[in-house]
Known about the structure:
The protein is an alpha/beta fold. It has helices at 31-43, 84-92, 118-143, 149-159, 164-182, 214-221, 263-266, 279-287, 349-352, 356-371, 405-411, 434-449, and strands at 23-27, 46-50, 62-65, 68-71, 96-98, 106-109, 114-116, 207-209, 226-227, 232-238, 241-246, 251-254, 256-259, 272-274, 289-290, 293-299, 313-316, 325-329, 338-344, 380-383, 397-398, 419-421.
Amino acid sequence: MGSHARGVTHYGPVSEIAGPVDRVVIVGAGIAGLAAASRLTAAGIDYVVLEARDRIGGRLHTIDLAGTPVDLGGSWIHHPIGNPMSALCDELGVARDAGDPTPTLTSYDRAVGRRLDHAETERYSRQESDAFWDAVDAIGHRLGPNATGLDAIESFVAERELTGDVARRVRQTLRAEVEADAGDRADNVALRWMAYGDEFDGSGLGDLPRGGYRSVVEALATGLDVECNTEVVSVRVEDDGIRVTCVDASVRTGSHVVVTVPLGVLKRDRPRFEPPLPAPVQRAIDALGFGCYEKIALRFDSPFWRDDGVSHLIVFPPEHDQPAMWVFDLDAFGAGPVLCAHLFHTLTPYALDRPARQAVEWLMGVLADVFSHQVPDPFATAVTSWGTDPFTGGAYSHFPPGADPAMMGLLGEPVRGRLLLAGEHTQSARYGYADGAYVSGLRAATLLTTPTLGL
């Protein structure tokens, strides 16, 4: 996917940095907050990182599932060649493993009860997919500025005169790709910005940090001043500094503040800003999208699926209006005998709207269909709930109808000289990616370490 640059409204900066920069309070210890803290440390500027959770990393969260590292949030270094996340791993000494599942990908169609081998699966995962993304710009020009991702899918299927089960699988494949890219329904994604953003080289499902993203997070956080279990409820910007109040009524003061909470948290008016954010900034927060993406991970005694000739898998659902589900074989990546199902936005109720035990039972039922026999019971499981997590509120940002990339650029500008926002939603070049969040944290810290001083 390439990038678009047409029709962007430029809102302009809110303010420059007010100096001097004496002490910085960083809200959130995700990759953006840690990146900012790392750069401030190198510059010799006093700071503290306040994290609401009892852990660091934010949406980069690796658990140990009975001996197997499983990333419940971000997993890949997408397009790893030239990616700043790859450079960071090199700097930190974090090894990576190839994470491209496509060479061994097969699929199963639950609507007709049939296994599709690798060659047939490639028609959907590569040939039709590549043709769709190659045609996105042309489809967008034809359908106009108000078209959605779903409009593009329907137009593509009609133009290729696809029918029957082939048309359904193509629709489900493309719904999955659009929903995975945006973290939201295809009909809530603006087509004109759907392929917006920069790309580096290498596979979209590129490298996996060895041991999970915790290897990166923990190495980056070494020596940083982070206070966990410290939830921030309000941020006040005053003429001569900032005041940050925590849920326990404690107060931290400083000259500047960097707020790195996810867009989904900002949409819930957390933390409270005093005075309120400027109207254009608040409008951008309200307009930008923030959907859901959940995972169900099952740890087994052994990779039994290999006996059935299966590794990585696409499952086409019986419901025609649902996206395909991807199930990744973590053992093939060298991690351990775990199957991890990725539920894109439309499928997330299977994880969010029921107890974790029932979510696991649902996935086990799907796998029983795939293998045509009862599968062994997993002895460890994990089900995510990012969509209902109060410190996340969903997956990552995108452009629904009515939003545009300039809104993300606006969120990256200083507010009243002393407040900066950071996170993947505050830059449009790599929104939705961990490397975009990382670079946004560096950007915020760089503004503070080499500021163009205002008042």
